[in-house]
Task: inverse folding
């Protein structure tokens, strides 16, 4: 029996390859939580392996296991992949899901065999297709509507829906949950940039965004017309800065503090979007100052522009 494992993060892919439990491990690296989403044609071109279309490649194996981390970006890739293979019954018949409650890369060797594998059925596919369509939609309304549905067939999807909903600008501050958590940490004083990044034993427990996204969020708070964070000595947070040791060292050594605006935002008495331009993507929703969908954490509801 030939066995293919598909997973949704490079670290998970490396761990699964090292475990030698499958004939082939295929990791995906799409970042669906940040920036404009790829078009269907771009996704089609990217869904290939060994020169074959993904569905054709999967048919070369007797079993195809999807190993999914609980983080939101992995969940977005999972729903995309299930939606992608849905029209291919020969592939669906081979599919099972291994949904972990912790990052796959953190699992010890003795834990690999304990992971439960669940065959993919029509309810998995229906939920995935509905969720992927909601994430691609031009407004967040359908995504919020998912919370009224039974998503239990995909055990970590509800957590991802909630986490991503919280990254819409807050009704009172114009910033998402990760940005607000960063302001809370800066308010403690004498904070270096990398202390704001999520990770093992880090105080920022929000893992909705990864390394590069958090770096861009900090840029957005500090490198703007009216900053909420002062003291960031270098930027932007890109490959060029990382490749220049002196610039990266200055970045790492920056001592951050809140501006008066940052303090007001943290107290929820001012709105970042009143002082700074907003233009970013949340799934298929383009957020701008004139079209800023928000979430109200006190009432747990979506607020239209």
Result:
């Amino acid at each position: 029996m030939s066995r293919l494992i598909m997973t949704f993060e490079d670290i998970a892919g490396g761990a699964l390859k090292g475990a030698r439990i499958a004939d082939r491990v295929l990791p995906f690296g799409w970042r669906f939580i940040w920036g404009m989403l790829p078009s269907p044609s771009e996704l089609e071109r990217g869904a290939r392996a060994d020169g074959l279309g993904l569905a054709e490649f999967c048919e070369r194996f007797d079993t195809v296991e999807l190993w999914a981390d609980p983080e939101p970006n992995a969940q977005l890739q999972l729903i995309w992949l299930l939606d992608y293979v849905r029209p291919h019954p020969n592939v669906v018949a081979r599919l099972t899901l291994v949904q972990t409650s912790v990052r796959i890369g953190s699992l010890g060797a003795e834990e690999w065999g304990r992971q439960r594998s669940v065959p993919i059925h029509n309810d998995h596919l229906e939920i995935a297709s509905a969720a992927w369509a909601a994430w691609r939609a031009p407004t967040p309304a359908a995504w919020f509507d998912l919370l009224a549905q039974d998503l239990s067939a995909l055990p970590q999807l509800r957590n991802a829906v909630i986490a991503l909903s919280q990254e819409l600008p807050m009704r009172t501050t114009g910033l998402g949950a990760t940005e607000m958590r960063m302001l809370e940490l800066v308010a403690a004083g004498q904070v270096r940039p990398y202390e704001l990044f999520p990770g093992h034993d880090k105080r920022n427990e929000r893992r909705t965004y990864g390394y590069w996204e958090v770096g861009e969020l900090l840029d957005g708070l500090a490198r703007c017309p009216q900053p909420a964070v002062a003291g960031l000595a270098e930027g932007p947070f890109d490959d060029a800065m990382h490749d220049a040791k002196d610039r990266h060292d200055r970045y790492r050594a920056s001592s951050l503090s809140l501006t008066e605006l940052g303090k007001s935002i943290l107290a929820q008495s001012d709105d970042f979007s009143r002082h700074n331009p907003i233009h970013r993507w949340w799934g298929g929703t383009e957020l701008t100052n004139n079209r800023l969908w928000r979430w109200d954490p006190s009432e747990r509801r979506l607020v239209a522009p």
